[in-house]
Amino acid sequence: MMMPRTAALAVSILAGCSMIGRLAGGWLLARFPLRPSCLAWFAVSATGLAGLAVLDDRVALLVSVAVFGLSVGNVLLLQPVVLSEVFGVRDFSRLYARSQLIGTAGIAAGPILVGVLRDVANGYGPAY
After folding, report:
1. Using alpha carbons only, what angle is made at residue 14 by residues 55 and 43, rounded to the nearest 5 degrees?
2. Residues 18, 69: contact at Cβ < 8 Å?
3. Around 123, how many Cα atoms within 13 Å sit in the side-chain half-sphere?
4. What are 67-107's pLDDT values in tens digits?
5. pTM above 0.85?
6. I want to staple 70 with a disulfide (CB 3.0 to 4.6 A). Which of 11, 21, 29, 89 is the partner?
7. What is the C-alpha to C-alpha distance for residues 102 and 53, in angstroms, rounded to an integer?
8. Of the candidates 3, 10, 11, which has an alpha carbon nearest to the alpha carbon of residue 62?
9. What value, to the nearest 5°, has the Cα angle with vertex 120 and ends 117 and 122?
10. Do 89 and 38 meet the contact criterion of CB atoms below 8 Å apart?
């Protein structure tokens, strides 16, 4: 079980790694193709989330938070870049607005679904 100090440290690590990750992501995106870069950032994000879901050790959790933090900013910032490259700029505003509507609905429903899964599974493990 995480203690309040560990939780505070995790939030700080997440924020710091997010800033580092965004700077690194911008630098890398200027040097590598978009699609492989997206896949790489998604893989980093999935690795961090998987660690958060299954690890129980304090240090391992903090490392998972750092890994997830490196990717979280890039995953969010790549969406408009991908939309403009795949669909062009003519329809960008309409497509971006729709994608944000769908994404926001998912973000709003996520905590409710996790809570329902937690109640059904009698714990957070399966929910995450």
Report:
1. 65
2. yes
3. 4
4. 999 998 888 888 888 898 889 899 899 999 999 999 999 99
5. no
6. 21
7. 25
8. 10
9. 95
10. no
